[in-house]
User: What shape does this take?
Amino acid sequence: LLNIIAGTLSSPVVIVPSSYESIATVTVGSGGSSSIDFTSIPATYTHLQIRLLARTTHPSGTDGDYLDMQFNSDTGANYATHQISANGSSASAAAFTSQTSMYPSRVGSTGLAANIFGCIIIDILDYSSTTKYKTVRQLGGYDANGSGLLRFASCLWTNTNAVTSINLQAGSGTGLEQYSTFALYGIKGV
Amino acid sequence: MAAGSTYTPIATTTLGSAQADITFSSITGSYTDLIIVANIIRTSGSDLEFQLNGNTGSNYSTTFLFGDGSTAQSINTTNAAAGNAGYSASTNPMTMIMQLQNYSNATTFKTILVRNSPAANAVSALVNLYRSTSAITSIKFYPTAGNLNTGSTFTLYGIAAA
Assistant: This one.
């Protein structure tokens, strides 16, 4: 936790380091969008966090849609994802190696009832390192009152370059619906 | 670009005595996301439930992921009168972190992520749906049996996007 809290109801003492900063936000407008990009990400933070609310235009199915994520416009088979998922009736695990993108959780889609969006929180640790492959963790999902999916995932980009741009798009290849929002934050170290 | 520092504590409650529930009310719409971090002690094993904006209608549903040391399982609820923030059969402290993203938008239903660690017996994560497009202005937490016990802490944070 970034903040240090000590105190009681009667006399709270709150210390808030200036360590969590908003970098950029993309909100999908009317007509939707095929994808969103964060570009020219500065290397001035230690970690990045993406907080998103999304719904894709995938028209069929009742299990939402997954998102694809790529770094630095790398479209090579340099990504892996391991995940554990829950759909309301069973839990399962899966792995995807040598992929052309990472797979954060599923979100809402047009195939579901109106107004159902999914949420994902994505942490990209030590993103500006030039000596390590990049590891990502995420928690996300959606619920649609009778169906849904919750997923933990860890993702790997087998590249030592600093992450300077991030692309997110609908895994179905369709698009992102209006009101989907993607917020990028930077977390400082000392 | 950068809007400066955020992740701001809005309110903290530390229970000085056992009580049935706690409520964060009059939440402003000036943030993008809300995060609630709680360390919860109950007087008996139970679910921890929550209601938004005082809504007690059948407008909540939840998908659970739950592991107890021997099996991983998933269940769901539909058309419930409350959202779920986790279960513990134990009265040992349970940590809970809840994420309410874009809580003040008046367009979408609200999806709420929860991480829950009743470390004495399990670990769980949940995704909740609240079928209302209204901005969230209050959140009430309560156990389904017994009380929230002395020493329980609940802190509400706000995050503002650029």
Observations:
- The two ends of chain B are 6 Å apart (CA to CA).
- Chain B touches chain A through 54 residues (CB under 8 Å).
- The CA atoms of residues 63 and 76 of chain B lie 4 Å apart.
- The longest strand of chain B covers residues 33-40.
